[in-house]
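Input record (Table S2, row 801):
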Amino acid sequence: MRLFLNIIKLDYLTRVRSYSFLITLCASLAISYTFVPEPNASYSTIRIGDHVGYYNSAWFGYVTATMTSIFLSLIGFYLINTSIKKDIKTKVGQIIASTRIYNTTYLLSKVFSNFLILTTIVSITFLMSIILFTLYNDGFRFELFQFIKPYLIITIPSMFFLSAIAVIFEVILGRYSVIQNILFFIMFSFSLAVSPQSEMRYALDVFGSKIVLDTMEQSVREVLPLEEDSEMTIGYVLGNTTKAKKFSFEGIDFPSYFLVSRLTWMFIGILLVGLVSPFFHRFNMRDILPSEKTVKQILPKAELKDINLTQLPKLQKSTNILPLVRTEVFLLLRKGNKWLWGLNAIGMILLAVLNIEFAHKFVLPILWFLQVNRLSDLTTKEVENDVHYFSFTSLRPISRLLLSQLFAGLLLVLFLALPLTLRYIFLMKFNVVMFIIVGGVFVLFLAAFLGIFTKQKKLFEALFFFITYVNLNQIPFFDYFGGVSQNIDHIFYVFTVIVMMAIAGFYKRYYDLRR
Amino acid sequence: MKLEIKNVSKRYGRKKYGVKDFSLTIEKGILGLLGPNGAGKSTLMKMIATVNKPSEGIILLNKNNIVKDVNYIRQQMGFLPQDFGVYPNLNAFEFLEYMAAVKGVGGVGLKQRIEKLLDGLNLLDVASKPIGKYSGGMKQRIGIAQTLLNDPRIIIFDEPTVGLDPEERVRFRNLISDLATQSIVILSSHIVSDVDIIADEVAIMKKGSLITKGKTQNIIEQVKGKIFETQFDTDVSPRFSDHIKILSTTRYQGKTTVRYVSEVPIEKSTPQKPTLEDAYLYLTHN
Ligand SMILES: Nc1ncnc2c1ncn2[C@@H]1O[C@H](COP(=O)(O)OP(=O)(O)OP(=O)(O)O)[C@@H](O)[C@H]1O
Ligand SMILES: [Mg+2]
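Output record (adenosine-5'-triphosphate complex):
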């Protein structure tokens, strides 16, 4: 037990001490700030028809707890789904494998350290909810319990379940990070969308959000019976808050079966980890490079050939960046599994043949999202592969190396979008063509920018996932590629963001290199 | 060619120095850098290679301040870091082509030069396989090949012989002596014998500072006439007085041989011919 706790502690500390975690916390702080809109804000998060709650303790507590439960599940998965992979990379895994520790113990320790990471983030949003309450104070009494209760019952169990799911995914699909991503996305959307009309529907809801929304709806109905338009929304909805009416929400008396169900979810998580633990590779990997067959190498011992340096052909100075671009393209193309290119090919065909609007709105963002693992290490792979000694002391690392990375990435992104772009060109819709190009540039600069700042690929992966999700739900705020709205102002808005990211990114890289 | 390191320090924490007030002048030839783990060898080399900036002090190459003007040295330098990596998905050819572009050299001779380098380092047969599948020693040789792409005038090898088998070590030594006829070569190692054979000069550092620097002979000179060996049965454990510095003990067939440094020998000792290793151990253990 001591050992178990120690592993968790060390694992947690090493992860928390990283600079990137600090950035993650700042990002969570910023995001949780938006969970309860400022009274005059032009968006809403949780809304029952035309109604939002009075800004009392219960409203702040339940809204932020529910939003955290859902959105941290979505993004958090990306923050924690490489905990085993990290042990592979640092070779700590091989040491662990040689100790007597049980698979189950090791995996559970990962679950718990994942859970601690998420809980740390949750506590940030929790604090933020209290800060927001005092900030927007409408004269309601501060009741601490109304904050603690929803977090404890709604958020914490879903975080625990998520921590277990992330470990399970890594055990079963360790090598196929793309399948992990897709599968999680499907599971996530499915469990949000589906609600069986049975007694057990609240118990079956992992995120625990349905009981909250339904109770809120009932509170509304009590004030205004027969509300016809009582559509509930959760997420970010723009521009419909002006006519919102207020209702009073006083928290929920959770039925006991619901409380039991929350514990059951946590228990199921542990159980599943136990079930998959026999399939854990225990760092006994056949081959680190998945894409190629292993070739046995027997070196014929040749007679000693010495290098005669003076006889080597002389080279000239050359600032040509084409060789760099070419290598970057190789690196992008060879990353990940070959069959992914099958998916990409299918995606491109769909872009060519499907209804053009559908292709633009849904196929394009998904196709681009499939490249997430290729793009996420665009500017971090030097450090990740310890090649930075060479690249950061190279001739003009920014204007040559960084630029060729961006250029290679752009080639990839635009190549994938080509079928759609060509269709729009034939239709003479040049503003849409422009939007797609700007969109590609945006994805690329986002990857580069976040990589340079966080020196890690996680934040980009999480954010890109989030943005894609939001776009598939047709919410215009994060529409970077003209899927929802194609007016020219919007292009400028995206363009401005790109320019800002570019300036900040280049400057930061420049600053880092000087040190 | 002249490299001057003047009062260079690298501070990692408030009081934690990787290298402290270090001064050294190096001219053409091979300088072997010796020192125990954590002595600051890598830190020093990274500063010369412009990977890191010194916290204090300057480094001049032919009177050019390379702390400010990094490109001056980068153009004519080859650097083999201690813990470098490669892109595992590239093969040796592609990686070296990439490195050439990174260093800003190219031209019609590039393909041929890479081929010859790979041939000379015994890697031609595996050159089209992804580097991720190479053994440790093969990867190390790719690193060596990379340093030679641009006809370097100053070459910095941090622990170059790690992972090389004896045969490759010999080839590497030949290569280095060849290089040294026209360039500055700085190489670090823990293996005293590696340095002993090839280095023209040796610098020994400890805890971030330079202890001594000079021709191998002159360094050995410091312990000349002070090295002795004595033997006794393994089951007796004699006490040695404080003026004796033990360098090594070896057990063989019930006898223990103790090699030590002292101004005056103890009883039943035989004088020994001093080696660089003796001098190194003596100087760093103080
Ligand atoms: N990035 C760093 N941050 C903090 N301390 C560092 C860093 N790099 C090195 N050090 C410290 O500086 C000192 C010198 O380290 P360095 O790597 O230069 O030693 P070395 O002589 O190369 O050792 P080795 O023989 O093990 O390679 C050590 O005490 C080390 O702990
Ligand atoms: Mg070192």
